[in-house]
Amino acid sequence: MSTQVAVAAAVAGIGVYALYLRRSSASAQTGKPIFGSFGFHSLKLHSSELINHNTKKLRFELPDASQPSGLSLSSALLTVSFPNGRWLPVLRPYTPTNDLDEKGFVELMVKHYPGGKQSTHIHSLKPGDTLTFAPIPELKWSPNKYPHVAMIAGGAGITPMYQLARGILKNPDDQTRITLVWGVNTDEDIFLGDEFSELEKKFPGRFKVHYVVATPKAGSPHQKGFVTKQILEGAGLSGSSEKNQGTHVLVCGPPPMEAALKGTKKFLGGAQPGLLAELGYGKDRIFSF
Ligand SMILES: Cc1cc2nc3c(=O)[nH]c(=O)nc-3n(C[C@H](O)[C@H](O)[C@H](O)COP(=O)(O)OP(=O)(O)OC[C@H]3O[C@@H](n4cnc5c(N)ncnc54)[C@H](O)[C@@H]3O)c2cc1C
């Protein structure tokens, strides 16, 4: 929900943005992290690489190669474009997947949705093309605020979870445990698998990932189906159990998955409490990216 507020604020500021954009330069040396404060910046695409059947990894150059992006842990970038000469901008958030301390680059992993306005535009970009970004803070992460976080992601909703999990585990002062449940359509939709395996090996007992594949291939090592109450219980995420009393749940996925997890209101065709409520998680224990 925080994303929607941020997007609305950005729409309100779009006039200012249009003026700013004309003056923004991807090659200026700023001497400070460019996304340390709010503002729109146009960045040059350095490279673009297909990493599975529908997802590209794109690396954008920061204007000052000696500086990191300045994004805080659990931030996204709002992208702005006017594809095909549109009058109204297309605004969509994407979560950087590179280490936030890396200097000179931000990296995105963007899944292409057929007919999707922004993902189609981003997939069409060639090295040297530019894209406009503004930082949007998501969850304000405080180390050790919760003993355990349950991350539940669907499809490309994995990127905020990856950024946060890596940031938590990288910080020697943060002892938060993480259980990640990631629902995808097919085995081929999985990306970042090697990175997650590395984290599991490096942090046994602190990080565990459960893949749930709707239509698995023959011999797939993963659980079959959707993210259900049984799957979440099997991953040790029953909200009422003693060991999960301090567990906080983070959710990012397509709207139908979020509705199934968090429930629906009456005006959406009959109120449903949602799987997380059934598992014992109150709304104050759930955050949606
Ligand atoms: C905080 C946050 C971070 C995000 N980070 C990333 C990221 O790192 N990488 C990434 O690829 N995406 C990410 N997304 C999703 C991204 O913002 C866009 O929603 C997505 O790229 C689709 O935009 P579009 O303009 O291409 O599609 P649209 O033109 O908005 O929609 C076209 C069609 O695509 C389908 N569609 C759109 N969005 C979704 C979706 N989320 N799930 C399933 N079907 C959908 C629908 O059928 C829709 O009718 C993030 C979303 C949030 C809220």
TrEMBL record:
<keyword id="KW-1133">Transmembrane helix</keyword>
<dbReference type="InterPro" id="IPR001834">
    <property type="entry name" value="CBR-like"/>
</dbReference>
<keyword id="KW-0560">Oxidoreductase</keyword>
<feature type="binding site">
    <location>
        <position position="94"/>
    </location>
    <ligand>
        <name>FAD</name>
    </ligand>
</feature>
<dbReference type="GO" id="GO:0005741">
    <property type="term" value="C:mitochondrial outer membrane"/>
</dbReference>
<dbReference type="Pfam" id="PF00970">
    <property type="entry name" value="FAD_binding_6"/>
</dbReference>
<comment type="similarity">
    <text>Belongs to the flavoprotein pyridine nucleotide cytochrome reductase family.</text>
</comment>
<feature type="binding site">
    <location>
        <position position="119"/>
    </location>
    <ligand>
        <name>FAD</name>
    </ligand>
</feature>
<feature type="binding site">
    <location>
        <position position="117"/>
    </location>
    <ligand>
        <name>FAD</name>
    </ligand>
</feature>
<dbReference type="Pfam" id="PF00175">
    <property type="entry name" value="NAD_binding_1"/>
</dbReference>
<keyword id="KW-0472">Membrane</keyword>
<keyword id="KW-0496">Mitochondrion</keyword>
<keyword id="KW-0812">Transmembrane</keyword>
<comment type="function">
    <text>May mediate the reduction of outer membrane cytochrome b5.</text>
</comment>
<dbReference type="GO" id="GO:0006696">
    <property type="term" value="P:ergosterol biosynthetic process"/>
</dbReference>
<dbReference type="InterPro" id="IPR017927">
    <property type="entry name" value="FAD-bd_FR_type"/>
</dbReference>
<dbReference type="InterPro" id="IPR001433">
    <property type="entry name" value="OxRdtase_FAD/NAD-bd"/>
</dbReference>
<dbReference type="InterPro" id="IPR008333">
    <property type="entry name" value="Cbr1-like_FAD-bd_dom"/>
</dbReference>
<keyword id="KW-0274">FAD</keyword>
<dbReference type="InterPro" id="IPR017938">
    <property type="entry name" value="Riboflavin_synthase-like_b-brl"/>
</dbReference>
<feature type="binding site">
    <location>
        <position position="93"/>
    </location>
    <ligand>
        <name>FAD</name>
    </ligand>
</feature>
<feature type="binding site">
    <location>
        <position position="111"/>
    </location>
    <ligand>
        <name>FAD</name>
    </ligand>
</feature>
<feature type="binding site">
    <location>
        <position position="92"/>
    </location>
    <ligand>
        <name>FAD</name>
    </ligand>
</feature>
<keyword id="KW-1000">Mitochondrion outer membrane</keyword>
<protein>
    <recommendedName>
        <fullName>NADH-cytochrome b5 reductase</fullName>
        <ecNumber>1.6.2.2</ecNumber>
    </recommendedName>
</protein>
<keyword id="KW-0520">NAD</keyword>
<dbReference type="InterPro" id="IPR001709">
    <property type="entry name" value="Flavoprot_Pyr_Nucl_cyt_Rdtase"/>
</dbReference>
<feature type="domain" description="FAD-binding FR-type">
    <location>
        <begin position="38"/>
        <end position="144"/>
    </location>
</feature>
<feature type="binding site">
    <location>
        <position position="159"/>
    </location>
    <ligand>
        <name>FAD</name>
    </ligand>
</feature>
<keyword id="KW-0285">Flavoprotein</keyword>
<dbReference type="InterPro" id="IPR039261">
    <property type="entry name" value="FNR_nucleotide-bd"/>
</dbReference>
<dbReference type="GO" id="GO:0090524">
    <property type="term" value="F:cytochrome-b5 reductase activity, acting on NADH"/>
</dbReference>
